[in-house]
Amino acid sequence: MDAKHGCYNKSMASTFKVKHNGRIQWCIKWKQEGKWHFVYDDNKSRVQDKQLARIAAIGTQQIERSKPRKQTINKKTNPTLNMLFDEHVEKSDYKYSTYKTNINAWQALRDNIGCKPIKTITKEDIQTAFNKLNAAPYRALLRWKLINMCMNDAIKKGLIKQATNIERPKVVNRTRIMDNTYMDDYTRIIRGLLTWLENDTNQYHEWYAIVKMMNLGMRIGEVLGLTEESINRANQTLVINKQLTSQGRLIAGTKGRNGSFRKRIIPLPDTYYKALTNQIIANKKQGLTCAITYQPDGIHDAIEHPIFINKNTNHAIRYNTFYKYWIKIQQAYHKEIEGDELTETNYIKPHTNRHITATILAEEQVPITMAQAILGHMDSDMTEYYTHITASMMKPIGEKYENAMNNTLMTNFVNEVIKAKTV
After folding, report:
1. Is the pTM of this model over 0.85?
2. Angle of helix 368-375 relative to helix 391-405, nearest 10 degrees?
3. I need a surface site. Which of 132, 236, 273, 418 has the fewest CB within 10 A?
4. Pairing of strands 35-41, 231-232
């Protein structure tokens, strides 16, 4: 079944993907009491739940939850790679961006080895196709993964006993190499950068709180998605349960597929807690107020208030604005404090801050389970395993991390440079 054409069951409800509110979403359309009704959501399971809630609200229980036709492949058949791929992507609950990326990557294979039956395809066929395409390493790796996905599905269905695939394409991760090579320098620079930004007279002081939160090992979407409601003032912790999208919307959950409502709680050391509360106070003084409606559980609406607001638009700071200023901040710091220019080797990518945090936690001999809970390096199946890590247990970790970041030598160095320039 092609998702864009929808699917019908005996309840006469149609489920399909459509462009809505400027993005592709799942939609369910059904007729009830002589009228057509529509519900939309980014997640297929949630849109079905919304349909049930709407039916109940209308008052008559005449329509059952819509069920797509099952796209099962008979074990006796010999399906092509295209058939296995199409079935997998339509049944998987991918984000639309991931869905589109996989579709585009497979397009080059569709009229090539995609037409070959799963039982008769050979390694030579796959190698010939890859040699002909001569794609970039990352593109080749993605296609290799998609073929592997089809092979694994075929094994689960009992169509084949062993996967047929070429060796995994080798990809050089330059970011990882740079992080491993220059991590000591990155850690020193971040310590100095935070001291420099903390100064009230700094032209980029308004970005101090954002950089401070990045230094807690948070992802950029999680930082920009922080709201006043994210702060638990009772035990001075931060609840990470949402992120900002590139369209400026808040969505529930952190990194992962749609439908993931995972969250984590991290301690807020005193200086970090103060930086956030000062940012909220500064917003109120400048008359900056922003409210965003989102669905923390995928069904019910909630209104929350972003902490990091763009003064020009009075909306949450977007990714493009953040990246533009992140480069400017580092350029200014290197020119004023380090006495050099921003280069490929001393530029710190936003995500590198997570690696810096992990490195410092490891140096301070923080247990790996605690570090994973703070950084969010866990999947939804492991969440329950970490529920025994309480806020009171995390607080000493936060204090230890804060002390490690407050490097006296680097702080004194930055302050001396600033003092010399003002004399």
Report:
1. no
2. 90
3. 132
4. unpaired
CA-based nearest residue to 253, from 189, 193, 297, 223:
297
In this predicted model, what pLDDT tens digit does every residue of 15-39 receive, in sequence order? 888 888 777 888 998 888 778 889 9
Q: How many whole angstroms separate alpha carbon 369 and alpha carbon 334?
A: 36
Taking each helix axis as running N to C, give the angle between helix 137-156 and helix 123-133, from 0 to 180 degrees, rounded to the nearest 10.
150
Q: Is 7 helix (H, G, I), strand (E, B) or coil?
A: strand
Q: Are 316 and 292 in contact (CB under 8 A)?
A: yes
d(CA 339, CA 375): 33
Question: If you search the block for the tokens 């073929």, which residue do you land on?
Answer: 147
Helix H, strand E, coil C: the string for 252-286 is ECCCCCCCCCCCEEEECCHHHHHHHHHHHHHHHHC
Kindly state the tokens that stand for 217. Answer: 């090992």
Which residues fall within 8 angstroms of residue 415, CB to CB, at 6 or more apart? 195
Residue 85's SS3 state is: helix
Distance CA 103, CA 86 (A): 9
DSSP 283-344: HHHTT----EEE-TTSSS-EEE-BSSB-TTTSSBPPHHHHHHHHHHHHHHHIIIIISS---T
What are φ and ψ of residue 347, in 5° steps? Answer: -75, 130
Place of tokens 């395993």: 385
Q: Which of 95, 89, 90 is nearest to 245 (CA)?
A: 95
Tokens of 302: 């909630």
